[in-house]
Please model this.
Amino acid sequence: MRKTSKYARKRGASMGLAPAPDHWAYIIGRSRPFTDEPVIPGTDIGSSQHTVVTVSLKARAAYESLKDGHGDRADWELLCEVMGEAQIRAAEIEGIEGGELAATLAPAINAMRRARDRYHRVGKFGLDGPALHEIPAALDVYEAILQASSPAQMAAAAIKRLQVINKMEYV
Model:
């Protein structure tokens, strides 16, 4: 490893490469569960409950679009992303053999596969009868997992999901 000169260290600090003074609060905020309470009182640093509400509402809206037959690929992909992250976090929580969370998520993931197959057959996303019951239950599980997880854990689950998808030949 090459030694950095004093000039280069000063230049790096002046260009904004040094950590911000409140960087510690960001790290703590990413490491604790989603909450309304900020890390530093009187600021919004570390408060993340609005993220939970926003993601949950977007997922529910995507489900409603698919249920009504007006859904598109973006709605389908959002629900797949949500369920994939929930499946990864459920495996981390319950173990690989699975449990109650995995048992609720598996039928919903199969329902999303059926919706994809329907799209390939008829050119339109839609949900079948069982999916109308399986997906809302999976969204409830996702919201519970989201509330119990930290932002860093959910980000790691998203990265792991993408790694799994990249290893697959067909999605």
Residues 49-167 form one domain. The chain has a mean pLDDT of 83.
